[in-house]
Design a protein that fits this description.
Blueprint lengths: L1 H17 L8 H21 L7 H28 L3 H10 L9 H9 L4 H17 L1 H9 L9 H9 L2 H11 L7 H11 L2 H12 L9 H26 L4 H10 L5 H9 L4 H24 L2
């Protein structure tokens, strides 16, 4: 509980900083870049080599893809019923299947499931959510984007994945299994990785937005209902049906309940996919997740 309170305090600090004059507009972007290039790779290199492997790990990798498929089908179902505009459908197809499993997921996993569970959260994020953003996300953007720019090809997607710092760190972390780091290296990685939670949550708080545009209230409630309600419920039912248990399984289901991804939101806004709806999905989703995640945790 103490860790959870501290994590929320970082979020509130980010909200406060947003109201202080003199802070540059790109403040949150700088924090996000620091996380991508420093904090997250350091934590990957530190935690992943320590984790155990087995069938439970396969579930951690597969579940995010199951959630992408489930959520996309749900969005298309509701889009047909409610006859949403194409931009709204594209927005929800990008935002609902992709969860905030890194920037918010890792701090929340740490707060509820402990330090040792972080490694599984990283696997879920890097081999699930991030790859889905780069592949499925690019596909959705190519179909629904209002931009006339050049659409990303397979080569562009592969290059993006291969050059993403946390993914590079993940590859090295797998190669480093069974290797003991020298003391100073472990201390360095630990101190740099320790910056992840405060920096991420301050950046998230700084970026929070709840602005809406006409005609988006229904899609907003539907999207968040699927993301924070139906998706984790489906994950729980799948776990029960398969008779799975253990820490890795708990992490996977918990990550399935994360709100919409911040990075996917940035791409949706740049592509002109209902920007205010996108911002509201991210902002309100984060707020509501502080209620839904503790409830989900009780069922794990």
């Amino acid at each position: 509980m103490d860790t959870f309170i501290i994590t929320i305090s970082y979020l509130l600090l980010g909200i406060i900083l947003r109201r202080i004059r003199g802070i540059p507009d790109n403040f949150s972007n700088c924090l996000n870049l620091f996380v991508i290039y420093v904090s997250l790779p350091a934590l990957v290199l530190l935690k992943v080599p320590q984790m155990g492997f087995g069938n439970h790990l396969l579930f951690v990798i597969v579940l995010p893809w199951v959630m992408v498929a489930f959520s996309a089908v749900a969005v298309l179902f509701f889009a047909k019923i409610f006859r949403w505009q194409r931009t709204i459908t594209g927005c929800l197809l990008l935002m609902v299947p992709l969860g905030n499993t890194s920037f918010l997921g890792i701090p929340m996993v740490r707060a509820f499931l402990g330090e040792a569970a972080i490694a599984y959260a990283m696997i879920y994020d890097q081999l699930g959510s991030f790859l889905a953003l780069s592949t499925y996300g690019s596909f959705v953007l190519a179909l629904f984007s209002k931009s006339d720019g050049v659409k990303p090809g397979i080569k562009d997607i592969v290059l993006k994945i291969a050059t993403f710092p946390p993914f590079i760190a993940l590859v090295f972390a797998f190669l480093a299994r069974g290797v003991s780091y020298p003391g100073p290296v472990t201390e360095l990685l630990s101190s740099l990785g320790g910056t992840l939670v405060p920096v991420v949550m301050i950046a998230v708080g700084y970026q929070l937005s709840l602005r809406l545009e006409p005609g988006t209230f229904q899609p907003l409630l539907t999207g968040l209902g699927v993301k924070l309600g139906l998706a984790p419920l489906a994950a729980l039912m799948l776990v029960k049906a398969l008779g799975l248990e253990g820490e890795a399984v708990k992490v996977a289901v918990f990550e399935a309940g994360m709100p919409p991804m911040v990075s996917a939101g940035a791409l949706a806004i740049m592509a002109g996919l209902s920007p205010r709806l996108t911002a509201a999905l991210v902002g309100l989703g984060i707020f509501l997740s502080f209620v839904t995640l503790p409830v989900l945790f009780q069922f794990l």
